[in-house]
Structures
1.
Amino acid sequence: MSQANNKKSLQFFSKSNYTWMLIGAALILVGMLLMSGGKSADPNVFNPNEVYSFRRITLAPIVIIAGFIVEVYAIFKKS
């Protein structure tokens, strides 16, 4: 077996797979950043508008799930 065949057989993913994996990881990171925050200046005061906003409750989980879907696609994509 030549070295070129051996190297090719050990490579599981192509460059496009890694590109899609980076896109998925970026989406997950953006979703986590969208979910962060909501710290109150006074710890004795609870502001439900900060904690239960559309961005944190709806948008961020959708972006994170989209990132996981892209990751699954990147793993199963044929080289």
2.
Amino acid sequence: MGTNPAVTRWTAVLLGIAFAVIAGYSMKHTLSCFLLSFVIAYLLDPIVVGIERRGQRRIVGIIVLYAILAVFSVFFFAFLVPFLTGRWQDLLHNLPLYLQKLKSMSLELKHRYTPVYGAAEWQWLIDSFSGNLDKVTGKFGAGVYVAASRVAFNLFNLMLAPILVFFMLYYKEAIKRELLRWFPPLRRDLILQIGNEINRSVGGYIRGQLIVSLIVAVLSAIALYILDVDYAILNGLFAGAASILPFIGVIIATIPPLFFAYVKFQSGVALLKVIAAFSIIYFIEGYLIKPLVFKEAMNLNPLVTIIFVMALGELMGFWGILLAIPIAAALKITIEHVRSGDFREP
């Protein structure tokens, strides 16, 4: 009994994907550097294409782009990096003190307020919370050491990325032609069509998400500064990064500001002000900014989106979270072409 060619082909594809996932996980540092360079090149390529359309060679467009980025880099490393580094070091130094203060507040709350019903459960809850704070404080130093040990490699990625980005931009068409050679000639036009659809959908999403994250970060930092919450800029940057996560990003983004606001002011009113500020910001993001920024909706199932983010986040960390939705969108577009019969033998 002969083997079905379609089954053999899809088995080979699945095995290839499994091998790529295992290889990527075992070489996650190399993969991280490659993905960083790829995303940067992907975002910068439209600028180079725009310069090419004005009649300039691609290499000229890349040189002009790198000259502009060099000016921005001088400003970034001369002013922003020292400021953010100073605030980060100050946070690392003071965070154990914040945790200890929160523990003292919880113990004070335990003695001040004892409910009529469930007093034992209330005391157990406060004691458990205090014990967990001690564990967090104890592990904080180890976490800082692990984070510091990764700084050197991240700096190496940052230095290597411009070189990789240059070659990705310069050899873009050659890479595209080489990849197409791996597909059957009768399928190349279809693969190009699918690639263009994925590029429009994913490219619009990534560029739009960066704009949305930047706006959320700026609005959050301004709001927290007005409310006099400590580390407003760092909390704003965290809120912008958390906005990448679908559905649960808004919840995660509010946790650090609530923590700093409560420890500083020890007031429920301060918590309500922070919640109100973030509610307004995310209302503006969801109903004003995103409809303007995202030209094409991804139209992904919310459950599938959450599962994809969790799975790829567990597998690839930050890059899995960032690329989960674009990968899901690419798979959806491909599956739609498979269901429509575009891949059937002519």
3.
Amino acid sequence: MKSVTNCLQTEDFIRIRVGIGQPKYKDDLINYVIGPIETKEKEILQKGIEKAAEAVLEILKNGIDIAMNKFNRKGN
């Protein structure tokens, strides 16, 4: 995010976050985030990417507030 905000010279933009879970061991966080993705996790990640793409379309069509209400519901 630092490089994005630095390049844009602002923090005033919409962010869409895709969760990646947690590593088994706290000390392994960096490797967990930037390391290779396990095969079984790729399908889960693909679903998250598809949901994020749907959220982008919802934002463009109906605005951020409606999109947030639709996609930030618990269990969604």
4.
Amino acid sequence: MVGKMSRTTCEARSRNTWLRAGGMILLLVAAAGLCAGDIVGDIVALAPSQPHSYEQFMTAVQELAASPRITVESIGYTHKGRAVVLVAVQAPKNVGLNPAEGPPCLFIVARQHGTECSGTEAALALLRYFATTDDETSQRILEQLTIAVVPMANPDGVAASRRLNAANVDLNRDWISLSQPETRAVAEALSRWQPLAAIDMHELPAGSDKPAYAQSFVETIGHDDRIATWLSDDCRICSLRLADWMQAYSLPANFYYDYSNDSRKLCHRYFGLVRGIPAYLFEAKTGSGHPLEQRTTFHVLGALVVGNYLIHTYYDNQRRGREAVAETPAAAQQEPSELSEATKPTLKLEIVKPTEGAVVTGSVPVVVQVAGEGFSYVTFLIDGVLKAMTTCAPYTYLLNADDYSNGEHRIEVALCNATGRPLLSEHCTIIVSNNGG
């Protein structure tokens, strides 16, 4: 029901559209050239070299509140009595409007884990930029988009330099029970602001043997019979845009997809699978070679791309918006396009592991070797369902055999171009044998 309400709100707003999109895409095109007018660089330059403490964050919020484009709300309080703050940036004429009457809203949550700082810095830098810029195109963006941000969702964890909140609860595992004041506050704010896209910003541990944690990644909503097609198409196509822009900024990234049988305990899955909002989890890799500036850039770029996609799908008419998205076939349904003679000898793809007919249990790395150029990313499909996409080596996906019934299952990998069109594909069959079955 919530998903249907979200789409109804979107369509009702579209009928009252009086602005055309285009502002942000101009800035992103400029950004691709990494020129002096690079919006991503301009925003990241506003972030400090060291992360904000809770006290410094509250001071920064007070400074932002002086802008006529900024709205500040204390949406709740932690167990220790610290304020959970939401900050929204809008064109002055839109401040105070009922969300259903204003432009579409992008909702961002950062720092549910107190030790993961880059999301807060990216969020504050975005707010500062749009609160102060005099650039005409950036101001047009604010006329077409509201950005509502909870930059520090776990103030007690930040103050104590710990992942959990003061009640020893992992907030990003609390979205089914909503047992904590912080998650309840964000959920209630989500209802008030009625966003049409949402982002949850996190960081990955520096050291981990999980293949999924080797690089920064984005996780979003896939498609099955229990997920609305318009929702999964929004998320899938936007993820292609994200992959292209991450490559343009030399930011390695993997992409993963959630389905209706996945746990709703995580924030972005609650947004997407429970509330019916296109939702994206951004995980920035920490450790050597991943300084705060790079992690902040990952989040800023991701927010701009999602915001840009939201602007265009919202303001375009129904044929060019939802219907055009729905007409775009999923990667799993496409046949590989014909390779040119120049590409054929140079582009190669091989599934190294598992081997054809392998009997598997537990965690199974799907390892792919790629040679040549002219592709944008590698996709991994299991039984025709898109599970992951990666723009960078090592081209690996960790399949959990426990999620599948005993018997044969088809693994398919494909090299795709920027639009998601497969250029070359390979497949193999595995035999799942859980519990000796």
